[in-house]
TrEMBL record:
PROSITE patterns: C1Q. Keywords: Coiled coil, Secreted, Signal. Residues 108-245 form the C1q domain. This is Cerebellin 11. Residues 1-22 form the signal peptide. The keyword Flavoprotein does not apply. The lineage of its organism: Eukaryota, Metazoa, Chordata, Craniata, Vertebrata. GO terms for cellular component: extracellular region. InterPro entries: C1q_dom, Cerebellin_Synaptic_Org, Tumour_necrosis_fac-like_dom. SMART domains: C1Q (SM00110). Residues 33-105 form a coiled coil. PANTHER family: CEREBELLIN 13-RELATED, CEREBELLIN-RELATED.
């Protein structure tokens, strides 16, 4: 081993420069040498121990480095997941807000409006000919939203929207049988049957009208017209909001 040779040379050097060497011929040289060799052996052992320790500490450092790398990798992964989670949370919040908005606008934009009535709420009614030609439907089946007034026969639109309106009229052959659906005083659609040989007439019609809030729709008799009703509900007027606009 190089180290050993180096130490040996150093010792030999010491040997020859040591003062008074020539005078100590009586000294037991072999004993002296074996002392030095023992010393060198000890030094070598120490050196090996040191090397082992350094190797151990290097191995430890490598392990530590690996652990640090793993922790760094995991931290990056956690950061990524956190970011992803935040993104999802943002989207969830936006979706929840959208749902709330839809709920509110849905409740606002779809008021419940519907009515249905027939002319007679008891006995038998012949209506017309008369000057006040508005038909007042007294037997109210439904009036959600209170748009229909059973005292006047007028439906007043509570909100702007498209409304489905239908009616039927019934009568006998002595007069013109039928009626006109009026919107704010203007006729829209009608039923009509001239006096004729058949004894009774029945007719119906329907329309989808765009009404502004406050618009009034009602049924009017023709001039010299007459309709009939009893609890069989022959002459009727109905309507409902299809959707607001
Ligand atoms: C220390 O490590 C080196 C290089 O891996 C090796 O050559 C040497 O034998 C090791 N020493 C000890 C004492 O384990
Ligand atoms: C440990 O990491 C440090 C810094 O990155 C580096 O200088 C060193 O060489 C590494 N040690 C081992 C044993 O990989
Ligand atoms: C989502 O909403 C919750 C509750 O309103 C709030 O605490 C949180 O900060 C919001 N998150 C995001 C990312 O907007």
């Amino acid at each position: 081993m190089e180290l050993r040779a180096l130490l040996l040379l150093t010792l030999l050097g010491l040997l020859f420069v040591e003062p008074g060497f020539g005078q100590r011929v009586d000294m037991d040289i072999s004993e002296w040498l074996s002392d030095k060799i023992e010393l060198i052996k000890n030094l070598e052992d120490k050196l090996k121990q040191l090397e082992t320790r350094q190797n151990d500490s290097e191995a430890l450092e490598a392990k530590l480095n690996a652990t640090v790398d793993e922790v760094t990798r995991q931290k990056a992964e956690v950061d990524g997941l956190r970011k992803e989670n935040e993104g999802l949370q943002t989207r969830l919040n936006a979706t929840e807000m959208e749902i709330d908005k839809l709920k509110q606008s849905g409740a606002k934009s779809a008021p419940q409006i519907a009515f249905s009535a027939s002319l007679a709420n008891f006995g038998e009614i012949y209506r017309g000919p008369c000057t006040d030609k508005t038909l007042i439907f007294k037997r109210v089946f439904s009036n959600t939203g209170s748009g229909y007034d059973p005292d006047t026969g007028i439906f007043t639109a509570p909100v702007n929207g498209l409304y489905f309106l239908s009616f039927s009229t019934y009568g006998y052959n002595t007069h013109v049988m039928g009626a006109i659906l009026m919107k704010n005083g203007v006729g829209q659609i009608s039923t009509y049957d001239n006096p004729s040989v058949d004894s009774s007439d029945s007719s119906s019609n329907a329309v989808v009208l765009q009404l502004a809030a406050g618009d009034k729709v009602y049924m009017e008799l023709w001039d010299n017209g007459r309709v009939f009703d009893n609890l069989n509900g022959h002459t009727t007027f109905s309507g409902f909001l299809v959707f607001p606009v």
